[in-house]
Amino acid sequence: MMYQEDDAGSSDGLKIFLDWLERDSEAIVGQMFDAVVRATPSVVSTDSDRALLRSALTSHLPVLYQVVEAGETQPIVRLAAPAKRWAQHLAVSGVDLPELVLAYDAAGDVIVQMFAHSLRHGQPRVADATRADALEVAMDRLYRYLRAAMATAVALHLREAELLRRRTVSDLHDWIRRVLRDDVDEAAAQQRLNYSFAGHHVAFVLWSADPAGPDLDRAASYVRAATRARQLLQLRIDHRTIHGWLALEASSLTSGSLPSDMPRGVCVAFGAVHTGIVGFRSSHREALEARRVATTFRPDRLPVVHFDDVAVISMASHADDLARSIVTRRVGPLLSQPNLVLTLRVWFAESGSPTRTARALGLHTNSVIKRLERIAEQLQTELDPGDLLLRVAIELTPLVDHNPPQ
Q1: Is 405 helix (H, G, I), strand (E, B) or coil?
Q2: Which CATH entry fits the domain spanning 8-165: 1.10.490, 1.10.4160, 3.30.420, 2.40.160?
Q3: Per the database record, which ranges form the PucR C-terminal helix-turn-helix domain (predicted)?
Q4: 196-313 CATH, one of 3.30.420, 2.40.50, 3.30.70, 3.20.20
Q5: Which of 71, 156, 271, 385 could disulfide-link to 286, CB 3.0 to 4.6 Å?
Q6: Packing angle between helix 128-180 and helix 186-193, nearest 10 degrees?
Q7: pTM summary value
């Protein structure tokens, strides 16, 4: 005898359950199939789906028989090929994991209900004590099987879903890369990316300094909502960075249509608004450049930056030798005094207002005025908020600063 129990009643109950599994397997599969379809109709969209589900359910019964017979406390369930294919097929078909779990629960409930009915109404009649033992052992070992089988199926679903996600991201990355290097048919790219190059669109870069930080996908949705974009195309570059494009109704992004803030820990850099596939590329380059300038030269102005606000600094900073020369010549005496550099930078940003500068720095207005007087004295010039070269020089100080931002 392959099944052994310490208690003779439990041994009899186990034999009854095993005999029932073997005798009524066809009816069990039929009712499990109907129950799963009722509970999770999304898993049987086609005749092929229905055939695969029935095959998977049929393949479970011999494995269930072996696990119940062995009676291991923590059985290792090796699903048959049809059951494996079904779990993987659900992932490929876009059926969510909770649907798979619900299907397993529905099938398990059917086995319990059918066996209980067989014990009450089957022939020959089973004594009450033996019936109770049989139902107890059946439910215990069925639960062990379902727990182990479901864990295996869930792992298969998750693995297949991750492989599919990676293939999709890789394909999306390839198409976008081809668009950016002007090596793709525009109509084909629009269809594959599900994004229209017609009309107005703007590129953006989302990033986080914290690898375990906020949800960047949610932040991308926040940006879309703030700009009221018709479409969002996004590509995750790594766990800290997303490149994105927004299809807009308006021909420009005003301060009112930019997000006023971002989720904590997230920064965003925008390009300018453009049209057409050429504009798709141009806005992306501008967004990348806006991020570079923001993180290198204007860390105090994050988390939202627009290329138009840093375009002059961008152009000046690419000629490093000339930029350093401008900085040294115009603001050299201030480079060892970071508080004066910061004051002048904020003063320019506040259009030359000592009052707003003081508010931004958390200082008294008189303190700001005294700093400005020291700056003018050391630079030997009158401060003019319209002095573009001085403003560019003060923004470029990280190129030669003793303590550049990290």
Answers
A1: coil
A2: 1.10.490
A3: 340-396
A4: 3.30.70
A5: 271
A6: 150
A7: 0.54
